[in-house]
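Figure-free illustration: sequence to structure, shown twice.
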Amino acid sequence: MKITPTFFVYILECADTTLYVGSTNNLEKRLKEHNTAKSGAHYTKIRRPVILKYSEAVATFKESRSREAQLKRMTRIEKLKLIKNHI
């Protein structure tokens, strides 16, 4: 039996061209929050608008947090290469 992915890891590009890595169980809702919410990630709140550049689905919360940590350890160049190869 295949497990349906329920979590996402993502990379956003902010208006100042910096990259932000996060994870969520509702990608569409979280992207909207990054661009409009008064609460939430301060980093993206002051660098709007943000654009979704990369996402990957994973099955569990634990996997999403682990993969998020991996992406955060990557250099900017490595993240941009991941984004480019994903398109």
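We now fold a second protein in the same way, so the two outputs can be compared directly.
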Amino acid sequence: MPLNLAEGRGRRTRADQIRFFSIAFGSVRECQALFDIADLKDTDTYRLLDSLAASLYKLIKKG
């Protein structure tokens, strides 16, 4: 996730940035799915992932 964010931020066009932010968003959701499977939804880390997903969503929709 962090590398996708960094790479997206370094892209010149908004379309390229959005592509990498979208990849990072998918990775966050994959991590959350693992937490769901492990029954760890009620953790600070899960809430942090949820917050990160919300921030990424805003970056993507801002496009």
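Summary for the second example: Residues 2-62 form one domain.
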